[in-house]
Amino acid sequence: MKKSWISERIPVESGKIKEALFGEKIPNHMKNWLLAMGTTPFILFPLQIITGMLLAFYFVPSTEMAFESVRHITEDIRYGFWMRGVHHWGANLMVISLFLHMMRVFFTHSYRKPRELNWIIGFVLLFLTLTISFTGYSLTYNQVSFWAATVGTNLVKEMPLIGGFLLEMLRGGEGVTANTLTRFYTLHVWVLPIVITLIIGVHILMMRMHGISEPEGFKKGHYDFYPGHFYKIIVVSLFLISVLSLFSVVLPPGLGEPANPAITPLHIKPEWYFFPVFLLLRLVPLKLGMAITGLSVILMIFWPFVEPMFSKKIKTRTTIANTIGMIAIVIMIAFTILETFSII
Q: What percent of the chain has pLDDT over 90?
């Protein structure tokens, strides 16, 4: 049989490509989307890349023009308000979905042997997502974002050993200046998206090698990724775009006032996903708060290796893990609500 022009020049069998992309067997529990929450940030990330690229056509990363370019996008560019709104709410939804995904992994104990390293990789992705959200939030260069960047980078300085170096690297000087804006822009648009993309690839590769863990209490068995799960991804993608579009119209991100380093606002707050840490640092001495935060993060990162130290019995370890997880969630939700309404 005569080969086609393309198959002669790219001698790869289409059947093998299809098998690699769509041939994966999916456990039955993945039919419940709440148990497949990791797919949601996987859908949102490319959407953030696309909307970010379109916004970058008009954004000017300079202290003189950053705020004005955001205003221009929002008020003058056709559909600019929608594009900015989708990007803004997409970042928030991506953080929420990542938290939900990690909660699902934690409470179904999918981090256990042999998937410990993939849990750590997932935590790295969460940290990078929070970092890229922080740098993007600062690019609007209004009063709130400017002073939030100032406070956020000040906290970096409190990190032991490397705090001073990281502060200098992020700010490019002693204060938040034009150098800071340029560095945040470079991190947000170039460095972090590339790093996140590579780590997502490693995360998925590890998942494919070990297979998707199957939590207890669900019917055992598998179904084909294509067409069942693939079509579900398409439906969820359309749903997410619709929700983000609705939020962009009903609750569009505001502009605020242009950044003014000479005037400190009365109430400076970071984005909501930093509220628990922000409130903790207001309630206790700074160094103690940083120590508690650092130790908590380290504990969660290496939890798959810490958990077996409590007991050799799986049932006991499960009870301890669930208890610690519930306490952590209650504290985070309570601190977020308290800080949102400035109750304390």
A: 62
